Amino acid sequence: MGYDAENVGPLGPEQKAVPVAAWGVTAADWVAGRPALATLPTPLVTLDAGALDHNRAAMAGWAASAGVDLAPHGKTTMAPSLWRAQLDAGAWAVTVATPWQLAFALSAGVPRVLAAYPVLDPGVLRWLGQPRSARVLVWADGTDIVDAMAPHVAGSAQPLDVLVDVGAPGGRTGARTPGAALATARAIAGTPGLRLAGVAGYEGSLAHDASGASLATIRTYLASLREVHAALGELYDGEAVLTAGGSAYFDEVAAALAPLHEPGRTRVVVRAGAYLAHDDGFYRGITPSNRDTGPRFRAALHGWVRVISRPEPGLALADGGKRDLPFDEGLPEVQAIRRGGTAPAGPLEGAEVTALADQHTFVRLTGDAETVRVGDVLRLGLSHPCTTFDKWGLLPVVDDASADQPAVVDVVRTVFG
What is the DSSP string of 356-393? Predict the structure, then answer.
């Protein structure tokens, strides 16, 4: 699967993942030589080509067997080449989270975009009202949202599809009662320039683990989506979209909603986004594969940091920090060591990341890990892909992060504005 190497052009110092020796060389020519990981600067984050392929195919296969469509959340990666790969694998649409992301997705040629929020910007609404081939579906959770949209969509060349956003107490956006959801739907259906297109929700903000109590909360919420969808049946004009599903509970979404999936009548769409890169932290812990109800994913993201100081026993400082590595859903974990930065990766027991500063990783060393020396490179498992991608404008793709000598085979370009 080709990503961005053919389109990036000459590389330079503005791309922090690129070695000095590659400055002025096109990305295509650079990766054609399969540069060794050891030749790249640190700190570094890489993508694993095999893991990306595996995860994309695993999720596509799961969706087909579960009887749902996919609209992966594009804000996870903000990488058009990864979106394209997901669409080529059968994804029905791409989901976004801001007006700018929506505009960018359309400019990138995405044929269907789920904008999982209310679009209130007048300029964006007027722009969406112009003739277009791509389909856009936006959210509304109250009649006040509809009222705010109405002046800017009147007279549009084509109606804007709107999904009723159904929430729950303690959650994020979303109508809090069936009555509020029904009133919103009626307002949408009665507003020129808008079209009632279905029901949307997000269960991930209601629970953060896979305990019995959390799963019961998720199931109760998903039942409320079904009830609202059933109540709106007479208001629909054509196929309705029924969508939920982040990366933690998409198995529960399929169990609750897939029986309604009947393209032409009701299309059930799961919006999981983190599955493509997965992680070695939050999503590893909460993935449905741990419940034997979802596909098994592999972490595609790895951090690489070089030890730059051993100022005292039991402590190493490495050259990555908050500007390079995620920390919002748990600190990175030390997985392996490359002695001298060039040796094959080997195990390292007794090394633990305890803190990140802006540009430093603090690593506590015990036992055999005291053998770590300045110049060694540590491979890190990362937690939360969403805040990894936005730190890197260009990510090298290696053939296999666990190989003795990983080689760069492509690059992925991200766009975060």
Answer: E-SS-EEEEE-GGGGG--TT-EEEEE-S-THHHHTT-S
Alpha helices (H) along 9-121: 27-32, 49-66, 80-88, 99-107
Report residue 192's pLDDT band, with 50, 70 and 90 as the boundaries. Answer: very high
Backbone CA torsion sign across 188, 197, 59, 227? positive
What are the angstrom distances between the C-alpha of 319 and each of 35, 160, 215, 375, 381?
22, 48, 40, 10, 16
Residues 160, 188: contact at Cβ < 8 Å? Answer: no
Phi, psi dihedrals of residue 8, rounded to the nearest 5°: -75, -35
Query: In which region does residue 292 sit, left (phi positive, over 0), alpha (psi from -120 to 50) or beta (all else)?
Result: left
Q: What percent of the chain has pLDDT over 90?
A: 98
Per-residue pLDDT band at 43 (split at 50, 70, 90): very high
As given in the structure block, the two tokens for residue 154 are 């009147």
- Distance of alpha carbon 377 from alpha carbon 305, whole angstroms: 5
**Distances from the Cα of 200 to the Cα of 63, 127, 129, 141, 221, angstroms:** 18, 23, 22, 10, 12
The bridge status of strand 351-356 relative to strand 361-365 is: antiparallel
Alpha-carbon span 385 to 375, nearest angstrom = 27
Q: Supply the pLDDT for residue 309.
A: 98
Confidence at residue 417, expressed as pLDDT on a 0 to 100 scale: 84
Three-class SS state of 148: helix
pTM of the model: 0.96
Question: CA angle at residue 270 from 265 to 273, to 5 degrees?
Answer: 150
Tens of pLDDT, residue by residue over 214-249, are: 999 999 999 999 999 999 999 998 999 999 999 999
User: Could you tell me the two tokens for 46?
Assistant: 């890489």
Check: CB of residue 249 under 8 Å from CB of residue 203: yes
